[in-house]
Amino acid sequence: MEKIYDVIIIGGGPAGLSAALYAGRARLDVLMIEKMTEGGQIATTNEIENYPGGLEEDSGPALSLRMKAQAKKFGAAMVRENVVEVDLEGDVKVVKTDTNTYKAKSIIAATGAKPRLLDVPGEKELTGMGVSYCATCDGAFFADLPVFVIGGGDSAVEEALFLTRYAKKVTIIHRRDSLKAAKYLQDQAIDHPKIDFIWNSAVKEIKGKFEVKSMTIKNLITNETTEIEASEEDGTFGIFVFVGLVPLSELFEGKLDMDGGYIITNENMETNIKGVYAAGDIRAKTLRQVVTAAADGAIAATQVDKYLNGH
Ligand code: NAP
After folding, report:
1. What is the pTM of this model?
2. 286: which residues sit within 8 A by CB, 6+ positions away?
3. Which of 91, 110, 132, 141 is most buried, judged by most C-beta within 10 A?
4. Contact predicate 44/66, CB 8 Å
């Protein structure tokens, strides 16, 4: 007989993993589909300082692995596949991956968000060759070299602080004259002897072949452009881009109500389609953190249980 899951969770970040845990504990037949490593954005985040109970020496990947093990302990099935299409209409929902077709009575969309690109010449060509979106992954390649961090939010400042472990010097380039990051992060960065700032400036071009050789920045107040070149001694420098997030909601476009690409739900994580829920960073909301993603996942799975079993 054709297998029909109680719930399919699309995405294995903190929202998806938390939903898998709660659905498993509710004895629902649950499948979580993640295309990459479980953990989503925290899989590439070194420290998770503000998750309640988080340990100082803990890392994003370690927390993800514990969340995964905990969900598995309660029976959640997980596959690593890329979802390419969803049919959300009707009582039985259909999820197609590049290798399989799955069916379920309900869906939790927990596809999260991905880093926004600067969208300047040279960025794509030099990604992985000096331009990076992950300090934990690539920071060590820039030991004793200068690095530039682009952005002014929590990610930029947190990752700039992390990069001071390796880099000779970290310069944060921000398009405003002050940071947007949480005050405790700002204070740490401003006081850090290895961190400098270039304010009111935007990157216009990145140049180099197989490694970054120079970068053009423009002062947005004076319109003056400056070329930052790698010194002869260093040969190159790193550029770490943290300029916000883009929702990963293409699968649901035209199917679910959205606001700027983020899925609209009520406080029970219900979308405009019965039996379809959204949780975590993909949801239109004001605070995108591990703790709110985990909370969304718990609420969504509890509501699925109510929807299917009436309690
Ligand atoms: P964010 O808060 O959206 O900040 C993005 C920053 O990049 C802003 O300073 C923005 O400047 C700048 N920016 C946007 N587009 C740009 C462009 N094209 N060129 C140059 N600069 C650009 O993004 P985030 O820091 O990635 O954080 C995303 C979410 O995750 C936030 O909700 C954040 O609180 C959360 N987060 C939390 C933690 C934590 O709690 N420890 C850690 C990381 C992330 P403008 O201000 O001018 O738009």
Report:
1. 0.88
2. none
3. 110
4. no
